[in-house]
Amino acid sequence: MNPLPVLHDGVRTADLDIVSIPGLPTLHPRYKWKDHNQWLREVLSHRVPQARIMAFQYDFGHDSQEVAWMQLMQHAEGLLYSLIHRREGVDSRPIIFVCFSFGAFILKRALLLAKDQRAFRSILDMTGGIVFLGCLNNETRPNFEDLCLKCAAVEMGVHKKDRVIESLRQDHRWTFVKEVMEDFRALNGPFPVRILFELNPSSIGSRQFVVRTMKQECLCSEQVSRLGWDTEQLVPVQKNHAELTMYPQRSDDDAYFQLFMKTLSEMIEEVVPKSVMLSKDLSASNGSKSVLSLDLSSDDDVASLLTPSKPSLNMPSGVNIPCFVTWPYDENPNFIGREDELEQIHTRLYSIDGTGSQQRVFALTGLGGMGKTQISVTYAFKYRKDYHIVLLAHASGQSKLAESFSLFADKLGLGAGMSPIKAKQAVKDFLGSIDAPWLLIFDNADTDDKIQLLDEFWPCKSQGSVLITSRDHTLVKSFTGMELVEMTKPNAVDLLLRLIQFEKDVLDDADVIEEEIAAEKIVKRLGFLPLGISQAATLIINDSCSLASFLEDYTLRELVEDSATIQLDSPRNVYKYTLRTVWNMNFESLTKDQQSLMKLMSFLDPDRIQLRALKDSLLKPQGSDFDFISSPHKLSKCRAGLLRSTLVSQSRNGRELRMHRLVQAYCQLRMDIEESQKNFRSAINLIKAVWPVPTREMVHNPALWEEQRELLPHVQKLCEFYVKSCENGQPLIPHTEANWDFASVLYEAGWFCYESGLLESVSELLVPAKEYCIRHLQKGGGYRILADIYGGLGSLATESNQFQRAYDDFNEEWKCLKLAFDAAELTRPSIWEVFGLGRVGNGLQGLHRYTEAEEYYRMALKAWEGLPGDRKVWVSNMCTCLWLQGKLDEGEKTIKVVIKDENDATNFRTGLAMNCLGNIQISQAERLKQEGKTEEGEARLAKAMATHTKVLQLFTTALGQRHHKTADIMYKVGWHLHRRQEYQKALDMLNNALGVYASQPKFFKNEIARTKYKLGCLQQDMGEHIEGGALIREAERLRKEIVAPEDWEPAQGEKAFDDIVQFWTR
Predict the structure, then answer these.
(1) ω into residue 829 within 30 of 0, thus cis?
(2) Claim: this prediction has a pTM higher than 0.85
(3) Does residue 867 carry a pLDDT above 60?
(4) What are the DUF7779 domain coordinates in residue numbering (predicted)?
């Protein structure tokens, strides 16, 4: 062991040496040299970048039964010899010593030797200052010997009767100790001395009659700490002796960290004035080009890799303002009434001057069929001149919102074809920064997790207007709003008469009165619901009948009692059977083929039923289930009939059909269980036929995402309907049969959600898929798909840093794959085997079981031989494993083989490999510096930064700025910038990473904790101690929630936070 390792060699040419000498805590069971050194590397190096920092390491009391003070004093010569060696060629550089407790005995003895021995004289001559912490400096105080023993006991965490303490008590060299202390006080050096002494008492343990007792006593008080030098300053600290003999933690909330740094900084300023450091700094910068200038030479370079600057109305070409998006809704020419509601909404949402210092929100709630969506659309069209931007988002699920925000990003000119995460953040950032009035409508926010979804997609809460429509009346309490009631009778009658284009002039007075009376009775029977009135009007027009005739027919049918109810979606949503009766009349007017298509579509997402999907299914053999649309002509006729019935409507571009959710529920209610199961199976077959499945070796294939995103809501509906049917005791897939296509469709959709960053939706699909497979395994044929599902769940767990769960899921995946091979579902060689083995390696590596993980990675790569595909991901994971085991050269050699083109911005796998290479280069640099090869180490660090910067550029292009993997590399580049003291650039980089993580806090809690800790360190190093300390304590609070109670202990530095994130995030 080198007794004086260099932990930091100065960012450029060092101006001074700082030597840290610990005390007896080195004997404490929980003390670790690496914690002491880590503090010096991570903390002090940032605060004193122009210093070379060294830590004196010595052994005392570990290897002998008899411990004596002389053993401690003998280390003085070792300190001197090490300093002379380290300072060869720079012996005129000033030294500052930082001594803890009994480390002062070593230093005092060393400086006295230097005074008397010419070979060491330069050490004393160049001593610029000393900081003593918890040190006994006055041997003349009463009970000095007893104080020494008590301090030793506290520092080592033992009682006063411990073997080591008793050995020190009986040492006959007390006189020598006192002589050293007396001679040092007499030295009265010319350099500044700062003495930090404790104000709080320490607990001192003793054993009497086998019972341990604790006494409280202040040990290193002001009196015993005082040297009596002219240059000394005493600094009181609200700490006890044990706390004062350790470096202060960044998370301390009692200002001790700030006090210590202030004390040291003031001493450094005395020894090496800032004017001297500045002149040397300018000289160095003028003489050579900064390493950073190679990659991030200006703030503009950094900004180009981060979120675009805040937009305004004076924006470059390409940004589209004004922008009006209410797709798929057009203005409704037949909208009537609701003037009071529209006025109330506008009064709340619109600022007279068109701007406002706070955001305005209105929640419009009510039962389905009340016309909430039509009111919001009408409001948008009526007041569009008051807003520069109007956007209507479909809020019935995460995928719907993501799709809406992708459309917004395109229409606003922020970028087409963005990933969902990137589009979401781009729109949020844009709305949060533009100085212009805008309106965002969240339509149909009815899911159980609507609050979390709204929060995820909600723009900056300092401006703009937000209108929410929902069936959940409790939102009115959360936001200003209203609960919508049914239409007034006059408005309901007017709506019906307008829809049927009632012509009063062609009738005599008696007929007009009869028709108006009939209209009043019809709308009353329909509960004054706009949706029911619209359906009745369609029937009246199609049958070319009068209102009185319709009323007579309607009464005669009496399919159900008016008092009977059906319950849809939630206990609050209750509708009269009168509405169902109107739909019955419309449905029965359809042909058999049209009814079949209607039943099939009732199990798909009602908002977007792509005609292309129906047409594409014709190209796939589906059997007799699809005879009703077996040709384009049949499909066209069915579509036309459904549109005439108004049970469905069509998008503006004619490419999609949609139906109201109540109509969808009605269609399902018409079917008995056997017919429901038949049509549900057909819906599965339809989606299975048109879902684009990536090849196994290319599971990350963004080229398929757009098509998959369009079909995702249909799979989510299939899953939702199946789960509810099981809860109701009438499963849509009989328990007696196994439909592996259903499980497969759920898996493919879940994997797409994982790959594209829609993490909230992954478990909603894969957990029901897993349960379905397990329930039907005994029927045969499901091991491979169950393995896929476990692989997807394990991958999700890795992203959310649930290390044990990830390993368990990957282990289950491998078990299922082995069973699949045994059952001949798979044959070797198989890419499934590669993924199964590799993922077990991922799980093991997450648990820090690196040796086992490496073995599985090697087996996976062996299994890949002879198979197609890009191996970079698994090679990168294995080389990361080598890196974490310290096998740096092997890892570098292996990873470089797979990096063919560092500029391949289309292949994020290249970025993964380069990220691993950059991490290896950092560790190689640290090893070189520990070997004393400082220049080589700095050069390797520069290479690492260049590598990671290139990865950031690559990920930004391939994945987008708002992808969590891009955030991971933002953190790493921020780490480099922090190390280089490029504080503002580091702050920008880390804040952007935090913004990405914070958009999905459920999954990135660990990354949030780590980034907040780093930001806190950065702010402290920028002099913002209060803000930085608060961030660090918040990070530590989060970490305490993450780490198991039995494993938690206060963080000593960055490593504690690195350990809580997945290996590829480090």
Answers:
(1) yes
(2) no
(3) yes
(4) 585-675
